[in-house]
Specification:
three-stranded antiparallel sheet; 34% helix; two-stranded parallel sheet; alpha+beta; Bacteriocin As-48, Chain A; 10% strand; 5 strands; DC-UbP/UBTD2_N_sf
């Protein structure tokens, strides 16, 4: 049981869960192609576990980053990820390990060049 105004009674999920939002528009230092963006993403996810934290959390974050917002919300909540920025750029696991995600794995830049 909670207070009438508690987040649990409103059905918003855990008190430390933040509702995910799309990242704000951003611009890469120079125009890049979709293929270059995909390569940057693959390199990040291949090396992410070496930054520390648990591989399972990195896998959950990757799945969330590649999913629609509602599914991403379910993924991070199920994995016990604590999202401190609604765009998922900064997250923590239940043990306090920090996970930082670059915007390029979360959304596309405004200066993306379509492959020809």
């Amino acid at each position: 049981m909670g207070c009438i105004g508690s987040s649990q009674t409103k059905g918003d999920g855990p008190a430390n869960a933040k509702k995910l939002q799309k990242p704000k528009c951003w611009k890469h230092t120079q125009p890049i192609t979709r293929q270059q963006l995909q390569q940057m993403r693959e390199e990040f996810w291949d090396t992410a576990p070496h930054y520390g934290g648990q591989k399972e959390i990195w896998d959950a974050l990757q799945a969330a980053a590649e999913a629609e917002l509602t599914l991403a919300q379910v993924i991070v909540e199920s994995a016990g990820v604590i999202v401190t920025s609604s765009d998922m750029t900064t997250c923590y696991d239940e043990r306090g390990a920090k996970y930082e995600l670059p915007k390029y794995v979360l959304s596309e830049p405004s200066n993306l060049i379509e492959n020809s």
